[in-house]
Amino acid sequence: MLRKCDWLCVLSLVVLLCCYELHAGDNKTDDLSKMQGKWKAVETIDSGKPVGREVETNFTITQKKMQIAEGKEAVLEFTLSLDASKKPKQIDMTLKGFTMLGIYELQGDMLRICIGPSEKERPLEFVSKVGDNRRLVTLKRIKTDK
Q: Which of 24, 27, 30, 126 is the most exposed place for a label (fewest CB within 10 A)?
């Protein structure tokens, strides 16, 4: 039979585990809320080759949507899904039923996303090499006056 002290230890452990699970679940929402706003592509590497920019490419993240615009024209809109519990953190970008698997890194006003070439292959590192069909995009937050 467990003594009163043993029950308190077990109860404390259960409470700690519950708090940890609640906090771990918040990472997904927390990163998504930190990503909200407008971003500018400062570097894009596609299959190991830098992509030149004749027109400025901007990204707008609102709720679970990412809109990509070249100049003032919206080009694509993806639905986002994040998993911040993975190492590296994972991002899924869905467009018309097709999901691109990727990883992301959010550090202050900089966001890096590396996307693989298919629905089955997720990059494991932030690199794009010749022939791998991966795209590595570095974004910088556009500061807005409030």
A: 24
Buried b (16+ CB within 10 A) or exposed e, 47-84: eeeeeeeeeebbbbbeeeebebbeeeeeeeebebebeb
Residue 63: both structure tokens together? 């709720």
What number of H helices and E strands is found in the chain? 1, 9
Residue-range domains of the chain with CATH: 4-141 (2.40.128)
Classify residue 48 by its DSSP letter.
T
Query: How far apart (Å, rounded) are the C-alpha atoms in residues 57 and 25?
Result: 32
Q: What is the pLDDT of residues 81-113, one digit of tens each?
A: 999 999 999 999 999 999 999 999 999 999 999
